Amino acid sequence: MRTAIIGTILALTGCVVTTPPRAEADLFLGQHIFYASSWPSVQTGYFDGVRVWSGTSQSATWRDIEPSSGNFNFSVLDQHVAQAQAHNMTLMYTLGQAPAWASARPEESANMGLGAAAEPGDMSLWTRYVTTVATRYRGQISAYEIMNEPRIPEAIKPYSPGFFSGSTDSLVRMTQLAHDAIKAVDPAAKVVCPPMDGGDLGVKRLEYFLSHGGGQYCDAIGFHFYLKTQTVAEFNTLLASVKAAMARQGVANLPLWDTEIGVLVQQSGTNVVPRNASGILSTVLDERDAAALMLKIVLASQVGGIARTYWFAHDSSSMGSTQPNKTIGALNLLGVGYIQAKAWLNDKQPQNCTIGDQSTDCTLLKNNVAAARISWGNTLSAVQLRQAGVRELWLLNGQHLPMASMDDGSLATLSRNFTDPVYLAL
Questions:
Q1: C-alpha span between 333 and 339 (Å, rounded)
Q2: 252-280 in b/e burial notation, b at 16+ Cβ within 10 A?
Q3: Which regions in the chain score pLDDT beneath 70?
C-alpha cells in the first residue's frame, strides 16, 4: 500500500517507470588506489575492492616489478595485496607496461616511459611475467585486467602511443597468453578484457578487439565510462552502445565491469583545473554536484547491468574521493556520498526505474519487499511523504533524518529542492 501511494505521488510529477527488476541484488563498488602508502586512510566497508597498477613513485607495473630480466621486486604489490586482505577487499591487478629491456620498441615515447606501451619483443617474456605474478599471488589477486586503455590503431588512428601501441593481433595474443598462464596456476582468478576508453571511440576499439577473437579469453569485459558531458543521458547511451557491441560479437553473456570512471572535484586538492579544453575531464565539479552525479551513475549502472564499478580514484589529488583531503583532514562530499551509495543500494534490487538527469523515481526491493525509493527532481511535500509511509530521509552527506520532524522548508533546503538524490526509507 505504501509503495502504491508513493508511486502515485511520483507519477503525478511526470516520472515514467519502465525498467524491470535487476536479477543481481549485490552492488560492487571499488576504487583505484595509486599508492601503497594511502592504505592507512582506507576504512573497511568503504568499498568492496581495489584496482592497482600505477602510482608514479609507488608503481606496480611490469616495468617496476621486473626492472631487469628475471629480477623481480614485489615490495609495492606485496603491500597492496596484504592491505586488501586485511581490509577484506578483493584486488584486481592491471597487467602491462613493458620494461625497456623487454619492449619491442624501447625508444618509443609512452605515458609510462620509453618503450612501455609496446608489446614485448619476445612473447615468452610476457608469459614469464604473468606466470610469476599469478603464482606468487594465487588466491590473493582475484582478477587480472589486461593492459590499460589500449589504442587499437587499426580501428582508430592514435594521437599518441598511450598505454599500449601494439597491433590488435598482438593484444589478442597477449590476452590469450595471460589467460592461459593465469588459469594454469590460479583457475579461480578472473581475466578482464583490455578496457577501452574514449566514449564512442572506445566502443569502436572494443568491437575491433572482440572481432579479432579477444573475447574468448576473458571472464569479463572491461570498459572505462568517462563522460564528455557529465550526464546520465550520455552514460546510458554509452552503456547501450557497449552492450550492443558485445552482443554483435557474441559475448553478451559476459559480465561488464566499469573498471575506471571519475570526475574532477574541486575539493579533492588545491588548484584543481580542467585536464582538457573540451570533452572528458574538461569540467571541475563542486563536491556536492560530483556526489549527486556519482549516485545517479552508480544507480544507472546497477539498473543497466554493470557488474562492477571502480571509481577513480581513492587517493587522487584532483579526482579523489574516499581519502580525506589533506588540507582539511576530512572526506569531500563525493567520498561521503560514495560510502552512502553502498548503504543505499547494496542487497537491494532496483525496480521500475527510469534513470535520467532531471528526474528519477526508483523503487528498491529487499527480499522482494519495497524497502525504499530513490528520487530526484520530484518536489514532494512532507505531508505527502508521511502519507506514503516514508520513515526517514537519507541524504548523500550521511544524514538520516526522521520524517516526523521534517517540514517543507527543511526538505527543500536539505535536498536543494530535491535536485540532489534522496533515499526515502519506507
A1: 10
A2: eebbbbbbbbbbbbbbbbeebeeeeeeeb
A3: 1-25
- Could you give the 3-state DSSP secondary structure of residue 232? helix
Rounded Cα distance, 227 and 61, in Å: 26
Ordered by start, the domain boundaries in the chain are 1-25+349-426, 26-346
Contact 214, 250 (CB under 8 A): no
For residue 294, give the 3-state DSSP assignment: helix
Helix (H, G, I), strand (E, B) or coil at 366: strand
Report yes or no: 298 and 311 within 8 Å, Cβ to Cβ. no
Q: Cα(411)–Cα(347) distance, rounded to whole angstroms?
A: 27
Q: What is the pLDDT of residues 40-49, one digit of tens each?
A: 999 998 899 9
* 250 Rama sector, left if φ>0, alpha if ψ -120 to 50, beta otherwise: left
Give tens-digit pLDDT for 135-145.
999 999 999 99
**Measuring CA to CA, how many Å separate 340 from each of 291, 298, 344?**
10, 11, 6
Q: Where does residue 107 rank: exposed (0-12), middle (13-18), buried (19+ CB within 10 A)?
A: exposed
Q: Beta-strand (E) ranges in 74-121?
A: 90-95
Q: pTM above 0.85?
A: yes
With both helix axes pointing from N to C terminus, report the angle between 232-248 and 200-211 in degrees, rounded to the nearest 10: 10
The per-residue DSSP string of 264-305 comes to EEGGGSSS---SSSSSTT--EEPHHHHHHHHHHHHHHHHHHT
Count Cβ atoms below 10 Å from residue 23 Cβ, excluding itself. 7
C-alpha cell at 254: 559476459
CATH topology of domain 26-346: TIM Barrel (3.20.20)
CB 364 within 8 A of CB 349: yes
Q: How far apart are CA 315 and CA 309, in angstroms?
A: 17
| Locus of grid cell 552508480 | 298
